[in-house]
Give the backbone structure.
Amino acid sequence: MSSNDSSNRVLSGMRPTGKLHLGHYHGCLKNWVQLQHEFECFYFVADWHALTTNFNESSKIEQFTSDTVIDWLAADINPGLCTIFVQSRVPEHAELYLLLSMITPISWLERVPSYKDQQLKLADKDLTNLGFLGYPLLQSADILMYRAGKVPVGADQEAHVEITREVARRFNHIYGREPGFEENALAAIKKMGKKASRQYKELRKIYLEQGDAEALERARALLVEQQNLSVGDSERLFGYLEGGGRIILPEPMALLTKQARVPGLDGEKMSKSYGNAIELRESPESVEHKVRTMQTDPARVRRSDPGDPSKCPVFSLHEIYSAQDTLDWVVKGCKNAGIGCLDCKGPLIDNINAELLPIRERAVQFEENPGLVNTIVAEGSEHARDVARETLEEVRAAIGLSHR
Ligand code: TRP
Ligand code: SF4
């Protein structure tokens, strides 16, 4: 595959933080499951990223990585449809990171909002290491390695995709120039055959003169269809469309997940570190216990006190899990004290457990068969390495480090 017809590639990752919970499921995994049917997806566990903030808790990373992969599989991320891998098993990421570090100004990294935010939030951690400053650039290497066009992430990661775009642009600008670019591009156009050449030239003209984005899209689609262009020529013609040099590393787009903010048991965002989470592999009894002891509208002290669902975290969970008729029943019964809080929690418990049932069943199969999980990760990582090596060959060649 040439670098530029990879816009149908999806890449995303997650740091290993242990067992996943409903927040991960609704905020991210459900979307990943959907995408694997539509695109060529790469999903990976970012264990090196975990080290950037937790280098002194490295002994947990392996267990957390395996927990994460099992939860993905349980959530129906399907290794037959997508590639599942672990970052540190594809050491090529480190080489790309190093090469990108040469062209990345330190100030770009310092001004990524998460750099200062995390330092404030994680004040008890030592974040003075170079690896932490480089966090977004390592993420750029992850993305650019697969020349992924689409990166499904939450809003908190948008700035990291943005810096990835800037780094890619800078890389292409510096290393995509070659003597005689124009002549090479014109020669490449000829190789497409009469009809496609003419179409390409027309669409390029319309785009350059009128900024017509649709013409650009159509020209790109035309290039993707070309069977007889070399990778280099394809890169040239993608670059020539926009007037510049070759595009070796295409700029990715963030696919912002319409994030259902899943409230935790206390109404704050569900998070392992807040201790307010329901895990995907939680037992039905434990789900029941956690929801039954969940906070409700604080104004509703006695059964006879009317409540306000908009002030109740139980209702926020209902909004994710329950159908409209149940929601109507809750609102009415809460406001007129027609139902008690335990009545209200009943259908919620049932709905959460119904969703978790198939997930738990799949999880057990993988828990009982760690060899299978290892094989899935090993095979996924091998495939990822094949793709990564291809990209690195071109990156090295563009810089002038082929030595071959
Ligand atoms: N930083 C991401 C997170 O904390 C994880 C991540 C690492 C990632 N590399 C990535 C996400 C590449 C998307 C693409 O959630
Ligand atoms: Fe919350 Fe339901 Fe109790 Fe109302 S009835 S306060 S929505 S738990």
